[in-house]
Amino acid sequence: MMREYIAGTLKDKNKVILVHGNADMDAVGSAYAISVCFPPGRIYAPDGVDRVATMVMEKMGVEILSECDMSEYELVVVVDTSSPEQLTPDVHVPHNSVVIDHHRPTDKWKDVQFVCDDSKVACCELIYDIIKAAGMNIGRDVGMALLCGMLTDSGHFSFANTQLMRTFADVMDETGIKMDEAMSFSRSETSMSERVAVMKGLERSKFDRVGDMIVATSYGGSFEASVCKAILNAGADVVFVGSQRDDGFRLSARADQEMVRRGIHLGELMKDIGKETITDGGGHGGAAGLSGIGDVEAMLHICMQRTMKEFRELKKRSELP
Q1: Which of 28, 101, 245, 272 has the most CB atoms around it within 10 Å of its CB?
Q2: pLDDT, tens digit, for every residue of 217-227?
Q3: Are 103 and 125 in contact (CB under 8 A)?
Q4: What are the residues whose beta carbons fall under 8 Å from the beta carbon of 183, sequence distance 6 or more?
C-alpha cells in the first residue's frame, strides 16, 4: 500500500528531486526515473554527481541542476539518501517532502513522507516498484537509467541478491535492453586524476589483522570508493578510506562478501560510530559511509579499532566447539 500511496503523491506535482553529495548512478538513475514517469520534475544535485552518473546523464542529454530555489516547487523528493546530513548544509528539506531510500533507517528523517526498503540492493529497484504500483510502463531511457543504477550499486552484481536480479531481468524484458548495452553504457575510462588518487591511497594505506581477516585504512582528497576497491583487490577484507574537507570529513567503507557472510555489517558499524561521535553514518552490509565534523585520521583510527573488535568476536565464535 505504501508504494501506491507514494506513487499517488508523486503524480501531477511540479517537483524537484534531490540527490546526496557526489551522487552515484543509483541516486541519479532513481531521480531521473521519477522525473520522467511522474512529470514535471527536475533533478537537483547541490554537491555534484560522480563520474559514472555524469557520463550516463550526458549520453542521455539530461540536465542536472547545481543551484535551485526549492520554494518554486510544489513537492521536494529526496532519493537514495539515508539522512539529511548527506545533503549540503545550506539545503533544508521542507516538511511533508517525500524521501525514498533503501539504506538501513537512521531515524533522522523527521516530518516527511518516508518510504524505505533496506532489502533492496539499489534504490532503483524501489523506484521501479513504485512505477509499477502506479500501473505505468517505462521506456528505454528510464530502463537504461534504472539498469545502470542497479549495476553500479551492486558492484556489477558482486553484491546482488535474487531480488535485484529478478528486477533487473524485468526491466530488460520490458525495455528490450540487452546486457551488453547496459554494461557498455555505464562503463567509462578511468581518468588520470582517479588513477593518481588510487596510487596515493595505496601508498598511504595501513592495515592490521586478526587471524585471516585484514582491515585497512587510507586517506586522500577524492575518489574514496575507487581507493577502497583497489585496497580490497590488494588483499584486504574490510577497508575505510577518508578525506578531509576543512573541518569536515567524508569516509567510505567497503567489505568483501565473505566478511558480510561471516557477520560484518558496515552500515550498522558506521551508524553506531556516527551516534558515538555525533556524525552521520550508515549504509549496507558491504558498503557504507560516514561524514561530519572531525579529523579524518582520528575517525579512521576509530573505524579500524571497532573492526578489529568485530574480527576478534568473529574469531572467538569460529573457535567454539
Answers
A1: 28
A2: 999 878 898 89
A3: no
A4: 151, 156
